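Quick start: load a record and inspect it. Here is Cilia- and flagella-associated protein 299:
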Amino acid sequence: MSQDMFLLDCPTYEDYLDTFVTRNDYRFIRNIRFCRMLVELGYRSSAEIYTPEQFVLHKAAVQESLWPTKKSTIFFSDNLKSFDPVLRELAIRERPNIQKMLSTIIFLKHRLKSGFEISGYIDYEHSLRRANLHAEDSIDWAGVFGERAVLKPKRCHLSYFDWHKGHVYYNNSDNYAVVHDVEYGLIFMHKGDHKKICVDISRELYIL
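Running the structure step on this input writes:
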């Protein structure tokens, strides 16, 4: 958290990128947009460069730690009444995920009214935290556990596949980096213990 304190001095995402731009960058490139692009691509710092969404979330987390706006984290499954086995398993894992004692990736397939499928992988803890912060396009977990909302993948999740339209999206989360391996295919690497999780069920789950 301490390494993100400087985000309070950055009113916008562009201001955040500018903190990595050097005087020599201005002198030789003379194009602030191109300078920022180099920062986003990771050419100006060995530190992780946040995406616009990550910038908003990390800044909100710093502000929340200094000036709390709510008494405690909301546990959306606390009043779960459903006997749906999937919801009950997610409820069991909610608190350990929020407390960083467990990390869960959810794989989803959702059939649209057109009959075509979308699918994707969700970082459960990251999604719960976004919901607590009321982040844009976050999952309505209260509605999901109350069976008022459908749990389905979105383009902002770890991965999103629209098989009919041929659209594919990948996004790193605060907990996982998306890795494309020539041999193993799609892999999620946990940023904490660096374990690599292979999604190909015909192979070993963890890769050294």
